[in-house]
Amino acid sequence: MSFDLILRVGTKFILPFILLFALYVQFHGDFGPGGGFQAGVIVAGMVILLAITFGLDAAQRIAPQWLVQRLVPLGVIIYAGTGVAGLVLGKNYLDYSVLSHDSVHGHELGIFLVELGVLITVSGTMVALFYAFVERGR
Amino acid sequence: MVLLTLLAIITLAIIRQRSLFAVVILAGIYSFLIASVLIVLDAVDVAMTEASVGAGVSTVILLATLHLTKTTTISPVRLRPLALFVSVITGAVLIWGTLVLPPFGTADAVIHKHVVPRYIEGTIPETGVPNIVTSVLADYRGFDTLGETTVIFTAGIGVMLLLRGARRKPSPEGEDESA
Fold first, then answer.
1. Residues 6 through 35 of chain A touching chain B, CB cutoff 8 Å
2. Do A33 and B143 touch (CB under 8 A)?
3. Residue A75's closest chain B neighbor by CA?
4. Do the beta carbons of residue B50 and residue B38 sit within 8 Å?
5. Min CA distance, B130 vs chain A (Å)?
């Protein structure tokens, strides 16, 4: 890999802001545009940018392969688990109103958990796909 | 109109282009243009998804595929009259289908009368989430989004299995692959 100073320094500067923007998109998704899908892809984009600029090993130091591969099913489990919680507490599947003492609060909490699940699965899948492609090409 | 003209130009360029690298980059530009069109249509959430997935990640994945398959150009395809005929007819039927759609932005279109008023009225008192897109996506249509998440999960697992499974094959013949 060639040593490109401007690219490396620029990437270092921009990485935390990408992550911050992803978190903003995730948690501000209730009020403005955004949500789990978009934020997940932005998080994955950050890891991919790191891997392109600094090499695969640098990316796998902050997002190791085993972690990424476990994130893929974890998000689905969080999402489906939120649904099961409604079932256990005596309402329909994916009915969030039982998650809190107040129905509106329960819905807010449910949407938060569900979006978190989407974020985890989407970012995990995108990064895992990228790793799979890159490792194959080695 | 400008955006749509640019879209048409990009599409023609993609068709004419023989270098696959250029095609991938043009497809990324195409996605950004589509995202701009969606912003003009006030669909900011979808625009964001299109910009990040269509222009960002899929461009990277396609470039990685080009790197893996070592293909850089495609041989020119000769014109097939039957295929051209089928494409033209299909396109004409699709355009004909849009003629009966209500004009863009009509408030009393059928799609705005069924469950949409219920969502718009219910979002704040029922879910406390001001962004109706989020409340519909994650709450009213939670099942659909669960399905979408599962689709991403399944697709990811499938691609990973494909790429890994093929890599493991050479190991019995004394390759350096250990796992």
1. 25, 29-35
2. no
3. B149
4. yes
5. 5
Residue keyed to tokens 């004409």: B92
Dist CA A96 CA B149 (whole Å): 18
In this structure, are residues B45 and A37 in contact, taking their beta carbons and an 8 Å threshold?
no
Torsion, Cα B106 B110 B111 B117, to 10 degrees, reads 90
Cα distance between residue B139 and residue B123, in whole Å: 9
Q: Are A86 and A99 in contact (CB under 8 A)?
A: yes
Q: Is the CB of B45 less than 8 angstroms away from the CB of A132?
A: no
Report the C-alpha gap between A104 and A97 in whole angstroms: 7
Is residue A36 within 8 Å of B51, Cβ to Cβ?
Answer: no
* Residue A16, pLDDT above cutoff 80: yes
- Structure-token pair, residue B89: 């007819």
**Rounded CA separation B148/A94 (Å):** 15
From its phi and psi, is residue B54 left (phi > 0), alpha (psi between -120 and 50) or beta?
A: alpha
Cα distance between residue B23 and residue B19, in whole Å: 6
pTM of the model: 0.82
pLDDT score for B68? 83
ipTM over 0.85: no
d(CA B60, CA B31): 13
Question: Which A residues, 116 through 135, put their C-beta within 8 Å of a C-beta on chain B?
Answer: 117-118, 121-122, 124-126, 128-130, 132-135
User: What pLDDT is stored for residue A136 in this prediction?
Assistant: 79
Name residue B110's amino acid.
V
Residue in chain B lying closest to A110 (CA): B139
Structural tokens at position B51: 């910009």
Q: Which of A36, A58, A32, A39 is nearest to A47 (CA)?
A: A58
Nearest CA in chain B to A114: B138
